[in-house]
Amino acid sequence: MAGLAAAASAATVASFQFQPSLSGSRFTLVAAPAASFRTQACGLRCWIAAKLKLRKALKRHVWQLQRNLDARRNDKLPHHLEAALLTENRTHRNMHHAYDVLIIIVTIVLMPYDSLGAATTDSGGEMASASSDLLAGSTYSENSMQQGPNPSEIRSPVQNEESAMSNGHYDGEPSLCIAVIGATGELARNKVFPALFALYYSGFLPRNVGIFGYSRKKITDEDLRAIIEANLTCRVDHHENCDEKLNEFLKRTYYIDAGHDNKDGMSRLNSRMTQIEGTRAANRIFYLAVPQEALLDVALPLADSAQTKQGWNRIIIEKPFGFTGLSSQRVTQSLLSRFEEKQIYRIDHLLGKDLIENLTVLRFSNLVFEPLWSRTYIRNVQVIFSEETATEIQGRYFGNYGIIRDIVHSHILQTIALFAMEPPVSLDGEDIRDEKVKVLRSIRKVDLEDVVLGQLKDTSGKVDRYTKSMTPTYFAAAMYIDNARWDGVPFLIKTGMGLMKNRAEIRIQFGHVPGNIYRERFGHDIDLDTNELVLRDQPEEAILLKVNNKVPGLGLQLDASELNLLYRDKYDTEVPDSYEHLLLDVLDGDSHLFMRSDELAAAWNVLTPVIHEIDQNRVAPELYEAGDKGPINAYYLAAKHGVRWDDDW
After folding, report:
1. Considering only CA atoms, which of 621, 643, 640 is closest in space to residue 452?
2. Polar residues: which segments have biased composition (predicted)?
């Protein structure tokens, strides 16, 4: 700093500012247009680079130099000075042969006096005070350039790292603020904050990240940290420095208490974010973990008062996405009046499972499967999702929305769309969503005759709104896609709560071998010779392929066996939670697993007629026992469409 002060004192300096910010200390000098000042400052920067042998990545240093060079070019320097700067830049690009250098103590920003006069006067006495304190008694000479700063004033790399972490900002790296609206709710406590910590621990969040909780409860930062800490654990395969990382994460967590529709609260949230963002690029993610009825009350004030202008803003919205197609459309229109489509991420945590990601990987990266992915070879597709969840936990929720609006509308239809789509132009999120929406628009409207509804029997003896309702907790249906690839192929879906086991899988049954010479060996049950591909997420992650083979021994006896890939045997790693996967996608701007507005509308068009008919005619669901397989009529439905459900519940 002494060398910097000396350089500044020798130049014609209108004003300057020393500002600790989120990207490290920043020394800004606003100088009169004097060539000597620019040349001396460049020489000083060269001296720092040559003297400080800090073990940091040179490429970030070069990037900083190039950015400063670009800024200086905008100042319209004389040609001979620009040539000198180019020479300096080339010198530093070649320095990696001798030094491993990064300037992390200071960042010098050279700005012409005439273009920043207004900015300097806005700073007022604060800048002047800092100037007098810093430069008092400083002198400049050739000796100061040769001798450099006092070693006592140069911090070690470790000290600089700690300083940057305390401010939450690093040189050359945009800041990230993540706000969880509804921070004290069950979803935020049990899913969102643990997922954020897992990403932070694994190094997927930037080092200069700030986590903000926002809720109506009157609690403090420390109270929120205690709530979060109670639900945080390190994964089995990642326990190094767990306590240290946990403490770091909690120190970056802050709390704002305000109502959902409180503009003042959103303004306070914006102010606290701005305090730790400094002057660098700043990005923000807002996770709206609030009920659907409060969504717009939160989103609209947020759009007006809490968005950054220094980077991108993204909002995450939880399912269900509306109660009807009309209500969903109104919500979408309101959101699009304040946000761009690319800012909105409609999250369904079930789509963050490896099962879903493997759909496109298996199909498009394996020649053995891709040519078979059509009605020519595939006989039927089954999408199965079941949970053991108790009635008491889900009762109130299903009394409002039900399984059709909650799971079928988003998870099931999105799974079918990803499975059945045409090859996208690229893996870009928009290209994939373009193909998904084509599938959704091609799905035939569901007929009530091809639907089975079920409801879990109440065994608790309690009487509440849920037990009085006719809202289904089980749904099975046959769907068809009216396009050239899938014409005539039934897609059987089955999903329910309170069933025998947790199960999530996709079963692809292939057709029979034409003129199979071994047909009589399978007896009267011709389905035994059907090949089947199973993609399973629960009860354990696996990929299974059923093939026919000869049983070892004398004679010719055939058997259908499974070639299996069990993740636990193949991969020595813990499978990340789906929220981790999806939050990382939001951070990366990858939207392919999130529903776009036109996808949302197309999905409602598929289900709205049957929902309307069920509600209008008050169709009674078939009751089933907890821990059972579900309504028996689901088996008749499958038989009607030539499909046999797998009985491994």
Report:
1. 621
2. 140-150, 157-166
Indicate the pTM of the whole model.
0.72
Quick one: average pLDDT of 108-115?
Answer: 38
Angle at 215 between CA 210 and CA 216, to 5 degrees: 150
Chain centre to alpha carbon of residue 61: 30
Q: Which residues pair with 565 in a beta bridge?
A: 543
| Highest mean pLDDT: which range of 21-25, 106-110, 123-127, 286-290 | 286-290
What's the half-sphere exposure (Cβ side, CA atoms, 13 Å) at 550? Answer: 6
Q: What is the pLDDT of residue 236?
A: 57
Tell me whether residue 411 is one of the annotated catalytic residues: yes
The pLDDT of residue 59: 38
| Region class of 133: left (phi > 0), else alpha (psi between -120 and 50), else beta | alpha
What does the alpha-carbon distance between residue 541 and residue 286 come to, in Å, rounded to a whole number?
A: 31
Tokens for 249? 């994460």
Q: Which two tokens mark 423?
A: 């090859």
Question: Is-contact 273 255, C-beta < 8 A?
Answer: no
636-641 CB contacts, 8 Å cutoff, 24+ apart: 637/450, 637/451, 637/452, 637/476, 637/477, 637/478, 637/492, 638/478, 638/492, 640/450, 640/478, 641/380, 641/450, 641/478, 641/490, 641/492
Q: How many CB atoms lie within 10 A of CB 257?
A: 19
Omega within 30 of 0 (cis) for the link into 20: no
Q: Which SS3 state, helix, strand or coil, does residue 129 take?
A: helix
Cα separation of 22 and 207, whole Å? Answer: 10
Per the listing, tokens 């200086």 go with 72
- The two beta strands, 253-257 and 108-112, are unpaired
- Parallel, antiparallel, or unpaired for β 24-31 and 13-21? antiparallel
**Which pLDDT belongs to residue 459?**
64
Do 496 and 474 form a contact (C-beta atoms < 8 A)? Answer: yes
Q: Is 100 left (phi over 0), alpha (psi -120 to 50) or beta?
A: beta
Q: What is the pLDDT, as a whole number, of residue 158?
A: 31
Tokens of 81: 């000075």
Assess whether the previous peptide bond of 371 is cis (omega < 30° from 0).
Answer: no
Q: Which of 92, 349, 411, 592 is catalytic?
A: 411
Would you say the C-alpha torsion 612, 616, 622, 625 has a positive or negative sign?
positive
Domains and CATH numbers, the chain: 2-167 (no CATH), 175-318 (3.40.50.720), 351-640 (3.30.360.10)
597-617 vs 429-442: helix axis angle to the nearest 10? 30
Q: How do residues 113-134 score in pLDDT, each as one tens digit? A: 333 333 333 333 333 333 333 3
